[in-house]
Amino acid sequence: MTSNTYVSIPVVIVGGGQAGLSASYCLRKKNIEHVVLERYRFAHQWRENRWDSFCLVTPNWQCKLPDFPYTGNDPHGFMLKDEIVEYLEAFVRSFDPPLKEGVTVTEVSRRDDGRFVVCTNEQNYLAEQVVIASGGYDVPIIPSFAEEIDPSIFQIQAGDYKSPAQLPEGNVLVVGAGQSGVQIMEDLKLAGRKVHLAVGPAPRAPRMYRGRDATDWLYDMGHYDLTIRDHPQGEAVHEKTNHYLTGRDGGHEIDLRKFALDGVTLYGSLSGASGSEAVFAQDLEKNLDDADESYVGIRKAIDDYIATNDIDAPEEKPFEKVWRPEQEPSQLDFDRQNITSLVWAIGFRPDYSWLKVDVLNARGRPIFDRGVCTVKGLYFLGLGWLNTWGSGRFLGVGDDAQYLSEQIETLHETNRATLSKVS
């Protein structure tokens, strides 16, 4: 039962993932009192919403939480799920944040005096400032026609997928070729499953190129320092899907054309399904071509950087398409293909239904400038492209947290000075 009384506190942080914990660290350094409210256990997404073989797709050296960089013996490797959790646990031990777990925020609203009411299942708070660090992966995107599929087909979304053994015997349709979709596809393929993959418009990236991981080149090129203000696509970059590749077994790129040669059946985007039949758009070749165009574009940018800076790096063979669809299948009969499972991997969306402050646009996306809302005292943290590509990742969330902590400190001191004058 929620209390009718309020605990007054300068700052409430909603969310105990890497973003909320980074904000807590920065505020603790500034001696600003705050509390971190986490619905589950801290780092819940990493613990519970990743499959067993999950690993980072960016190298370990990019793990740069505030004053807590990766210090292991494999900076160019890719931490497994349990190692990521251990990294976060060590970060928490390093400063012991004021963390309250098992606390669900049910509403955040703003009073006429400018303070925020934060209601939870345990206690209500009256805060001068609020940081929303709950992430953007609350609700899996599953089309309405999923309900029309034969109930004998086992359906699961990527956040609940753990391993091939979780699925009933038989073949599998994976819907979505973003980072999660292609990695789950490979996980199933390596387990000996026959996989059908519905390929959407996600781009892909090289892994190793000209002697180094492509992300190393991109870092040196300043790619990760590019802000959304300077990005040629501007706000439209929010709509772009992440490039797919993997860190599995030391890391490698994923060329779906090679998987097609190795037995994975590819289709275009899934456009509908009913009973035991699925229908696909005729866009497979276009989606493969577009993904390759992105892949080749990254390689060319690296080539240009190497040439401009006269860097000695080994040459690479030009990219070649090893397979193309001679005829794009438009339909799939689950029964005939012995498909018993369907994995939805077409993304997530945030749920801000509990946020009763006018800071969302018509599409429900938060409106802010580098995380700072026009409503004074309200901030967002940990979202992709909040400022840079790394804002939603271990690479950039620490810098964003430091920036917001400075904004919070300025307002906090202003509030203290105002109270002092009144008293």
Topology:
Layout (H helix, E strand, L loop, with lengths): L5 E9 L3 H12 L4 E5 L5 H5 L15 E2 L2 E2 L11 H15 L3 E3 L3 E6 L5 E5 L3 E9 L6 E2 L13 E4 L13 E5 L3 H12 L4 E4 L9 E2 L2 E2 H7 L35 H6 L3 E3 L2 E5 L2 E4 L3 H25 L22 E3 L5 E6 L3 E2 L28 E3 L16 H26 L1
Parallel strand pairs: 1-2, 1-8, 2-5, 8-21, 10-19, 11-12, 11-19, 12-15
Antiparallel strand pairs: 3-4, 6-7, 7-8, 9-20, 13-14, 16-17, 17-18
Structure, described:
This is MSMEG_0569 family flavin-dependent oxidoreductase. It is built from 8 helices and 21 strands. It has helices at residues 18-29, 44-48, 81-95, 179-190, 214-220, 256-261, 284-308, 397-422; strands at residues 6-14, 34-38, 64-65, 68-69, 99-101, 105-110, 116-120, 124-132, 139-140, 154-157, 171-175, 195-198, 208-209, 212-213, 265-267, 270-274, 277-280, 331-333, 339-344, 348-349, 378-380. With 423 residues, the protein is of the alpha/beta class.
